[in-house]
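Structure tokens please, single chain.
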Amino acid sequence: MFFHLSLPALASLTPPEFQVEIIDEYFEDVPFDDPADLIGISFMTPQAPRACQIGEKFQRCGKKAG
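Here you go.
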């Protein structure tokens, strides 16, 4: 398991009025009840089926996931 720097780089470019939280399902549960307005999902190709499951669950919870 290795950490990619694309998400921290993206978070560092996000304007300060927005709160960014990075969750790694390998280390903690995905907070599907989080009050976030937008959910971003990053994955590598072998993890695509799980990423789709996560996105679909967030959408069922009324979130915009992509």
